[in-house]
Amino acid sequence: MEASELRRKLASLLVVRGSGHARDHQRRYPRWELSNADLRELLDEGVGGVILLGGSAEELRLRCDQLQRWASQPLLLCADVEEGVGQRFEGASWLAPPLALGALHQSDPEQAEALAERYGRCTGRQARLLGLNWVLGPVCDVNNNPANPVINVRAWGETPATAGALAAAFVRGCQGEGVLACAKHFPGHGDTSCDSHLELPELPHDLGRLGAIELPPFQQAIAAGVASVMTAHLRLPALDPKQPATLSGAVLTQLLRQELQFCGLVVTDALVMEAISQHHGSAEAAVLAFEAGADLILMPADAREALDGLVEAVQSGRISEQRLDASLERRRSALAQCAESRETALDELVTPSERQLSGELLTLSLVLHGGQGLPPGPGLNLIRLDNQLNAPQLPLVAPALLRPSALGYEARLIDARSPSPWGQDPKAPLALDRLPDGPVLLQLLVRGNPFRGSAGGDEPWPQVVRQLLAAQRLAGLAVYGSPYLWQALQPLLPPELPAAYSPAQMPQAQALVLQALGLPEAALEGGFTD
């Protein structure tokens, strides 16, 4: 095979990161998102996939068309839209996180599975209309570790049966719309207490335990015909004492291919993540992953270095041409499953039934406590966020800001990365002397997220609630996100105290929660009750 032909074939198996925005200065994460010049050059050289983040639905459709024009072949265009396309691209449906349905599945499995399939159809349909042909979901991890800093509400369940049934339903719905789905993170990232974006976790379980807990949801997704499986950056000594799953033939070839008989695409999780990049350069990581059984190399730290390494590995005989051809055929087969995007006016992007689905998921997952009504202000609206500089769930017209303000509650944001609100007393950690007087509405937006390193369990919110109750200042509590924080706080509340929980954090969830607490819609909040 000629060197140029070999290079183009291998390039087609790389998936690089680009912004959903059209211009370089709009990139949210320039460290990972290639410039337009680099992106265009790589696509012209044969790179076969792009993962996108950022921008509106309108921008995404234009961007996908642009990328396809720049490319010399049909592209795999994907996004991490585990909670609906609107999670990443404004204007599409942003749905309650999957774990919301996990709770419902315990009481009404038939309804939960029907909703999960509708969830997949909504995600797949909107992705296809905007130019995406690959959804990087469902998460098949079993979130049986409440301290998990990165999976949390992204999982469909806390038991293998629930996680598997709902993930499989999502696959059926998504792929029924002609869009590829992706089961992740194989062989299971749910029972870890550290984040593979930051370090390499270890899953110390034996094969019996893996077969009982971690693997069943992937088996159900495979049985449902899932088109792709994404690897996990974690070490499993019972399978491979040396290499993490992404780089392990024992995991990807022996377990996934041979034992579970998965015939579709295997894609690595992003190789730029610290669990891999701390230990391997771009070239060696790509080669090790391909040797182990991966077909697609997602987000190498340096795409050209990764490609150089793969070319050298084939030319030296380290990777056979037959092995390369098998991956190319799996890519071709996957693309053949994708439906063409039909031109549709974007005012029809979200259908009435999809809008109904959004509201139904939020309503079914809402948990209420106590009564209604907050005392009139002046008071304090204390809102906890991961990072107030990057909070799409809290625009200036968010109900969490405007509704308490209309009652006279001054908003004060607590950035989880800042020590400013904390005092020295571990039993009363909130520095009340630094805050305004009056009743306090406490709104906590806490969940597991990549790069956070924690799901909020290390923050002293139980002590804060006790402190505010002792000072007779807690007027109401709203928890958005982690069910584990709500489970820790609810038993501390007096029976009459207005409080509510939603697993979702977006403005629509805030509107529902605050309505339940007795706060009416504010004039400027932008129709988030729709």
Structure description:
The protein folds into two domains: 3-339, TIM Barrel, CATH 3.20.20.300; 366-516, Glycosyl hydrolase family 3 (Rossmann fold, 3-Layer(aba) Sandwich), CATH 3.40.50. Helices cover 37% and strands 13% of the residues. It has 18 helices and 14 strands. Helix 1 crosses helix 12 (303-315), helix 4 runs antiparallel to helix 5 and helix 6 runs parallel beside helix 8 (216-223). The radius of gyration is 23 Å and the shape is globular.
Mean pLDDT rating: 92
- Spatial separation of the terminal alpha carbons: 58 Å
Strand fraction equals 5-15%
Q: Order of strands side by side in the largest beta sheet?
A: 9-14-13-12-10-11
The amount of helix comes to 25-40%
For the biggest sheet, the summary is: 6 strands, mixed
Contiguous runs where pLDDT drops below 50 for at least 5 residues = none
Structural class of the helices, strands and pairings? alpha/beta
Radius of gyration from CA coordinates: 23 Å
Please give the CATH class of the largest domain: Alpha Beta
Total beta strand runs: 14
Here the CATH topology of the largest domain equals: TIM Barrel
Keywords:
2 domains, 530 residues, TIM Barrel, 18 helices, 13% strand, alpha/beta, five-stranded parallel beta sheet, Rossmann fold
Concise description?
The chain is α/β, with parallel strands linked by helices and 530 residues long. It has 18 helices and 14 strands.
